[in-house]
Amino acid sequence: MKSNPKIGLALSGGGVRGISHLGVLKALNEADIYPTRLSGSSAGAIAGTMYCSGYKPEEILRIIVDTNYFKFIRPAISLKGILTMSQVEKLLKLYIKTDDFSSLQIPMTVAATDIQKGKVVYFSEGEIIKPVLASSCIPGMFEPIEYEDKFLIDGGVLNNLPVEPLDGVCDTIIGVNCNHLPEESNVKNMRVLIERSVIMSMNYNVYSRQSKCDYFIEAPGLGKYGVLDIRKAPQIFKAGYDTAMEYMEKNPSILDLVSGSKSLTA
């Protein structure tokens, strides 16, 4: 067993499905496994940043449910997108007291996509909130975020499992995907066709990075939940928790990651 291993945790995007990451974190923490560095795209960036700010997984779930997080999404009068993140920004400011990566208790990297240059951009210093908002801007649904002379959208477009910022820095990398698709015998309408196609595309760039992970946790069937279906938050949280508990039972070597000193979020 390593003493105080450097554990990296990469969290995928997936809208409300990202709540499953909180269940995974709860299970890992109960096993005395505490990540020392996180990275995330979209919903993974939100969950990871809140966790790195010192909130426990259950607290983050309560905040999301009690505030009805997604009600803060408002229509945008713009040709760039139909929704705006301005109200979400106000909400994040309530819970992230100091808008700087240096204030986090655990190092965090946020992935976003530079729409003009067509490449992934990673943020781990300076302001936190703008990069997190940018990482969550689903193209066509949200207005891009203008930040540091860049127009930024959802990090998951090009990298929905940002393991690269953890590679070579951490002894062990745990990847967590929240978009597993159940089999579908009948794609009954255009909405289902589009949603399923988008998730398949996201998962392709996740699975292409799976080999970079020492451990890979994926709750089955989460792709059936809508990206904004906040009503299913408790079920999604439980799915992440149950899957992580089962994964640790089937892969006992992960328990070698138990650290002698707990994270500040404990």
Automatic annotation (TrEMBL):
Keywords: Hydrolase, Lipid degradation, Lipid metabolism
Segments carrying motif GXSXG: 40-44
Active site: S42 (nucleophile), D154 (proton acceptor)
Motif (DGA/G): 154-156
Keyword Lipid metabolism carried by entry: yes
PROSITE patterns found in the cross-reference section: PNPLA
Originating species: Algoriphagus sediminis
Highest taxon of source: Bacteria
Motif, GXGXXG: chain positions: 13-18
The PNPLA domain, residue ranges: 9-167
Name of the molecule in the record: Patatin-like phospholipase family protein
Pfam families: Patatin
